Amino acid sequence: MDQTVSLARNDRARVVDQLADYVVRSIDTARAVEKPFFHLEFDHVFPPDMYAKILALMPESRDYRPMHGRSKGHDLDDGTHTRVKIDLFPEYIRNLPPEKKALWDVVGRALCSEKVKQAFIRRLGPGLSKRFGADFAKVGMYPIPILTRDIPGYLITPHTDTRWKGITVQLYLPADDANTDIGTIFHDVLPDGSKPKHSQMRFAPNTGYAFAVGSDTWHSADAVHDRVKTRDSILLTYFVDQGVLKVLRNRGKRLGNFVLNEIRQRV
Asked: 67 — alpha (psi -120 to 50), left (phi > 0) or beta?
């Protein structure tokens, strides 16, 4: 896929489709792990040449904006945000340089494709059925792909994701295996309510994990240590998109974030 960034607009759909097919194969061949909760583990998400392009065409620090939610409480004393993001939708990346814009447009569109969504729903059936019942495949899911960047000091304590979310996916984007110890931690839940560490994902190139959000999906991240310049990853979240309230919320949130991003660009 080396030609991705130079494609004309009318050829972009073909490359998006090819990348989506590759990601689907990665999902279909991912390891299914039962404990501490059902999840998938990826060894290889993107084609090697595409992964090399992703590393080479990372946005500049000024292109990101603060990530709110749980991460907001972990800003540094000087106000520096320890987690920032770029939404991988066309309206958010349109101000990137042409080559970067073309690449991230392809990545974002592929991750938002229907075939990728259906692959996740199919493989995460055990977790989704536990929450939504036998008809889990009929529950609407709205994908939000974001490129995130964490810096030393970022951490997040054990938590389960909000019930607005149906599926959580994180795809790691390091250049090498130098800092595999900063991956996401999964927790057991013991009868006494304690939540000890069960396992930890390796922060390794082109890897990641996915799980259906549930009441038992406790996870965390230790503080990013100062041997790391940035911890880059893609968070692909599928929000439950069922019922008028959730449908309006998902689209309204995207619109609201776009307005805030436009204001930031002009300021």
From this structure: beta
Q: Cβ of 46: how many Cβ atoms within 10 Å?
A: 24
**208 backbone φψ class: left, alpha, beta (φ>0; ψ -120 to 50):** left
> Which of 106, 83, 80 has its CA nearest to residue 93?
106
How far apart (Å, rounded) are the C-alpha atoms in residues 70 and 191?
A: 26
Query: Amino acid letter at 238?
Result: Y
Give the DSSP H/E element, type plus range, for residue 106. Answer: helix 98-111
**C-beta of residue 109 within 8 angstroms of C-beta of residue 18:** no
Rounded CA-CA distance 234/253 in Å is: 19
- What's the rounded mean pLDDT across residues 63-71? 75
Inter-residue contact 22 to 119 (CB < 8 Å): no
Q: Cis peptide leading into 36, omega within 30 of 0?
A: yes
Instruction: Tell me the one-letter amino acid at 58.
Output: M
In contact, 100 and 64? CB cutoff 8 Å: no
Indicate the angle between helix axes 98-111 and 48-56, nearest 10 degrees.
130
Of 211, 257, 204, which is closest to residue 231 (Cα–Cα)? Answer: 204
User: How far does Cα 135 stand from its chain's mean position?
Assistant: 25
pLDDT digits (tens, 9 = 90+) for 124-163: 999 999 999 999 999 999 999 999 999 999 999 999 999 9
Task: State CA 104 to chain mean position distance.
Answer: 14
Find out whether 86 and 147 touch, Cβ atoms under 8 Å.
yes
What's 4-266's CATH class? mainly beta
81-112: per-residue pLDDT in tens? Answer: 899 999 999 988 988 999 999 999 999 999 99
